[in-house]
Amino acid sequence: MNDLIDIQTQIERLQKRAAEIKSREFDKTVQEILAKMQAFGITLKDLQQAVGKKYAARGRAKASTAKKGGVKRGVRKETGKAVTKVAAKYRSPKGETWSGRGLMPRWLVALVKQGHKKEEFALKE
């Protein structure tokens, strides 16, 4: 039983260390990405298009699957509402983000339960 407790304690310590390292290296990584974007002339629009192509390919694969209940799976019903992306206001130690809208994400709920304050994870503007 002590072995299990020791292992769980080690895992917890290592996860905390990993989160610290990730948060320390986050800004450095962002700067490296920005430098490469500038060197190659890559814009945010280029990145959005690349992500869009990735999801479009996934959607085509799903849409070709069998119908379920008369509706093709993987195809969204059009609502007519424009979707606007909201900037992130909070970032987890693992890099997950939240805009501050809607329900608090699980990662932030867990951190608040551990005694952290939501403001600790607020992004600096």
Structural description of this entry:
- This protein has 125 residues and is mainly α.
- The protein has three helices and four strands; from the N terminus they run H-H-E-E-E-E-H.
- The chain has helices at residues 2-40, 44-63, 106-113; strands at 67-68, 71-72, 90-91, 97-98.
- Strands 1-2 form a two-stranded antiparallel ribbon. Strands 3-4 form a two-stranded antiparallel ribbon.
- Strand 3 (90-91) and strand 4 (97-98) form a beta hairpin.
- The protein is extended, with a radius of gyration of 20 Å.
- The termini are far apart.
- Residues 63-72 have low confidence and may be disordered.
Topology, element by element:
Blueprint lengths: L1 H39 L3 H20 L3 E2 L2 E2 L17 E2 L5 E2 L7 H8 L12
Antiparallel strand pairs: 1-2, 3-4
Oligomer: single chain
Number of helices: 3
Biggest sheet: strand arrangement: 1-2
The outline comes out as extended
Largest β sheet strand count, sense and barrel closure: 2 strands, antiparallel
Helix-residue proportion: 40-55%
Terminal-residue CA separation? 47 Å
Proportion of beta-strand residues: 5-15%
In the predicted model, the low-confidence regions spanning at least 5 consecutive residues are: 63-72
Question: From the alpha-carbon coordinates, what is the Rg to the nearest angstrom?
Answer: 20 Å
Mean pLDDT: 82
Q: In terms of structural class, how would the helical and strand content be classed?
A: mainly alpha
Order of helices and strands: HHEEEEH
Number of beta strands: 4
